[in-house]
Amino acid sequence: MLSRRHVLSLAPAAALLTIVGRAGAAPQRVIAVGGALTELIYELGAQGELVGVDSTSLYPTAATKLPNVGYARTLAAEGLLSLAPTMVVATEEAGPPAVLRQLEAAKVPLHVLRAEHRFEGVLERTKALGDLLGRQQQAAALSQKLQSEWTASRAQVTKLAAGHRAPRVLFVLSNAANQARIAGSATAADAMIGYAAATNALVDAQGYKMLSPEAAIAAAPDVILATTQGLEASGGIDGLLKLPGLAQTPAGQHRRVVVMETMELLGFGPRTPKALTTLAQALHAPAGTGKTA
Amino acid sequence: MSTVGSALPSPITAVPTRRAWSRPMLLTVALLLTVIVAVQFGAVPIAAADWLNGPWSDAPKTGGAHVLWQLRLPRLGLTLAVGAALGLAGALSQALFRNPMAEPSLLGVTSGAAAAVALTLTVFAGMHAVLPAEARLWLLPLVGFGGALAVCFSLDRLSRWLAPGSIAALLLCGLALQAMTFAIVGLCSFLANDEQLRAINFWTLGSLAGANWIMAAVMGGALLVLAAVALRVAPRMNALALGEAAAAHVGIDVDRLRWQCITMVALLSALAVAWCGNIGFIGLMAPHLARQLVGADQRRVLPNAMLAGALLLVVADTFARTLAVPAEIPVGVFSALIGAPWFLFLLRGAVRRMGSA
Fold first, then answer.
1. Is the pTM of this model over 0.70?
2. Contacts of A78 in chain B (CB under 8 A)
3. Tell me: the pLDDT tens digits for A40-54?
4. Cα(A283)–Cα(A278) distance, rounded to whole angstroms?
5. pLDDT of residue A248
6. Given CA atoms B267, B268, B270, B274 in this order, what sign does their dihedral have?
7. Which residue in A71, A73, A78 is closest to B43 by CB distance?
């Protein structure tokens, strides 16, 4: 029975939360929470179905024009629902849990894709997104392209790394002028340093740790790896080297700082193969060359 | 509910001026208007028909109805209850310590809750795994509640042992406990992995985003009970304003009154912190607003501080929900933005009235 009230209530909130199941591969309304997922959706040519992104989705630039649902860990249920999504794809970071439960209650499917700091993870996420968006063909083609780029990139790394000692690299994540965290094992930065045939100077710590001057000096890195966003926060290379302990390392003395954009370097998205080439070229450059932006 | 008299004879009867008795209406009306506006505002447009399509109705749920009945209204209910609880806790602690700067966080109560939660998230992280998913929802609030009560209990024992009956000693014990709980949170932050660290941060920032009907009902019910108790002791709180010795001379059991107040403050702040984390400034601001409007008689200050707390938090949360749609800004940002300038303004008035305080 369609009561008058029911018809009335359908009108204003029309596109919201379709509770009926979706048939086939009708166009979706997708919210992507996680920069790497947004990039993959663009690579799959599905950006037309993207109705919202989170604050880490800074690439491609077109994505920044979309409604921004804020920081992945502090999502707002009503804000998400206002975009009338038919699906939310997110990395494991998405939260808070209460808001995810509210999404569930509103019958919006939430797909959490595992974040893995391995290249295979990029391929897995590509396939998963292809399945979700009904773009299996595009996903297969993209996987093939990424795989061949990766193979080429790895071959180049081997060439670049030949004939000299693996450089010791310290990844510094600064978020303010006077504080920073450094990356130990089990981090995206550690994985990328390893793929680039370099050594993470901070081997005996797990995860991100507050920068301690003595630990930085003891790690004796040849190169400091930082992000563009972090460098802005700490006030350029000079500001970064003012962080306690960094100036006294070999990297600090020779001002060897390599800078890359956060998502490109750490996102494990479709830019990862190219990012690896860029990183390896910068890390294995002959001593005396300065920064790479 | 704005002018709740007490059946008990009051030891000191303040002469009610006309101003004092008519102003409470102002707060009630302002709160009602704010609530009406707050319900209208949000990321999702609500149609008139959505109001009739509540949980009891069989009509298919439109998006607007779901948002209104499952997200916006329970959140508003929780906001009102938490705001009122913070306002009442603030008013009680200010009356108790005869210090306009007193706030539950001064007693270390709120940080006690935060420390217990931080420990649960990091050191005892394995505990989550053994609990069924349903219980996990309640774990952190209960733990936070336990932490707040533990601080209160220690406060009681410590201050009795050190300097029985002294409010100054109590306040200093509160500060010492607060330092200790901060150290526990700090240690947990150091031990935490990335994910745990962010969970701790979420808790220390404060948010009303997780609201549902159950939370609103539990919080509202507890608030009503505690408010009833608070209003019963209000006349005796008036006597306390003269100082503890004077209050004792007019026949008031000061020790008992003190612990009634402390326990109420602990329960109120523990409840508020349990689900929403730390929301600053409301407990400090609301009693001032109430005193500006109705004078210093606790029988009127307590209910009006509840109204003011609810009003302030609804305003802050409405900004938090709507300014950055579809994202959300932490509510603590707005409670401080509204609270701090207002507080300075009040301070200026108070200093002028008193010459130099």
1. yes
2. 42-44, 67, 71-72, 321
3. 999 999 999 999 999
4. 9
5. 93
6. positive
7. A78
